[in-house]
Amino acid sequence: MPLNTPSNKDLQKYARFFLAVCIITASIFLLAPFIPALGWAVIISICAWPPYYRAEGFFPKSKYWRPLILPTLAVTLIALLAIVPLSYLAYEASVQAVEAVPALMSMVHHGLPTPAWVEKFPMISSWWDKNLASPEEIKRFVQSIDVSPAANLTKNLSLAVMDISVQFTFALTAVFCILKYADVLIKQVNRVSIKFFGAQGEALAQQIVGSVYGTLTGLVLVGIGEGIFIGISYIFAQAPQAVLLGLLTGISSMIPFVGTFVLLLCCLVICFKSVAWGIACFIFGYLVQSIADQFIRPALIGGRTNLPFLWVLFGILGGIELMGLLGLFLGPAIMACMTSLWRAWAAPEDIQRLQESTSSDSPPIPASIQLSPRQLRELKEIERKEREEAYQKATLADRKAFMKIEKKLHIHSKRAKGDADLEIIEEDIKPKGTE
Questions:
Q1: Where are the alpha helices (DSSP H) in 237-357?
Q2: What is the pTM of this model?
Q3: Direct distance between the N- and C-terminal alpha carbons of the chain, in angstroms, rounded to an integer
Q4: pLDDT by residue (tens digit) across 164-205?
């Protein structure tokens, strides 16, 4: 039987499909231990790409600078941004633990004195005198403590720290490779997304990138800002270890609803020194967190992808529940893709037909789904200016060919929501006989 008969072609097609499925499945099993590290590497690379792309313009175009030295500098900076705050936290925790030993010994032998503000509340004061101010009660409580759970907790914590360190090392290695080959990877991802998902594939990829970057700015950077402002109030209140308390408040503020709980604990610590300052710091910190959570955060996270605040909140909380800290970034990205698909399905029929008629080789038209009429007109104006600049730079022969191409332009005018005119231009930029 000839090799090119229809039956053999079908058999070869099914065999290639089966082989591809086997290879992909085997790759997933091999990469399963490193999936968290690769996920963090993709998130870090997406967040680091805008400043990295701008920094490329300041470095010479040599075979060593951009492919090797610049990614190395970027990975080193990312490592320092992660390691320095955590090292400071570990150092302060060890110092506080050493300083706490004499205080604990004194409390066991002499009891814990009743604070002045507690004496103003008779019920709390009587309980304090009975349970905390009495050395015998404290000794009885200390002797009743089972230290085996604490030992197991210390062991598990040490193993978790080692695992996180290894995953972080692999993630930084992957970030270096992604930044080094970023230009090639971006083009390949765009081609694959358009090939498999059509004209809307690139739009979905942009939604994922925009939501991840928006989550970084909305959670991490806003949390750092909250920690700075609230930490300043701790300094004015002369709180013990004000910088450490501010750092803990900032880190906890990155996760919804956790920052308020940590703020309350920090203000209770301040209350042991001054009740007025503790209450003032809590009111100020709560106002800062409320403004950030209600106005700044939704605008930064959902503004890049037109994602409603409700889906942002559900994406963050659901992502944390399913995937841990990794879901903090992937949750909003998944919700952004879901919202994009819903808007595409709910779009008017004329826009859907226009999306389906767009060829896979021409740029996708996500603007009719994601952008406003004003933004569409701005995009059309940018395209017109780019054609004019190309026409001015072209030679005489190229201008004649350019004029022929211009005649092939087909302009579709449709009426969209709000009775605004949308002009979407489909171009055939290749003259006949050329590739």
A1: 242-253, 258-271, 275-291, 297-303, 309-323, 327-345, 349-357
A2: 0.65
A3: 37
A4: 888 899 999 999 999 888 888 888 888 887 787 776 677 777
pLDDT confidence tier of residue 379, bands split at 50, 70 and 90: low
Check residue 60 and give left, alpha or beta (phi > 0: left; psi -120 to 50: alpha). beta
Question: DSSP letters of 233-259?
Answer: HHHHTT-TTHHHHHHHHHHHHTSTTHH
The single-letter DSSP state of residue 414 is E
Q: Per-residue b/e over 131-168, b at no fewer than 16 CB within 10 Å?
A: ebbeeeebeeeeeeeeeeeeeeeeeeeeeeeeeeeebb
The two structure tokens encoding residue 380:
């059309």
pLDDT for position 405: 56
Domain borders along the chain are 111-143, 188-365, 371-435
CA 100 to chain centre: 37
* Distance between CA atoms of residues 91 and 94, nearest Å: 5
Instruction: Please tell me the distance from the alpha carbon of residue 133 to that of residue 123, in angstroms, as a whole number.
Output: 14
- Our CA dihedral for 427, 433, 434, 435, rounded to 10 degrees, sits at 90
Q: Give 45-66 pLDDT, tens digit per residue.
A: 888 888 888 888 787 777 777 7
Q: Tell me how far apart the alpha carbons of residues 430 and 209 are, in angstroms, rounded to a whole number.
A: 30
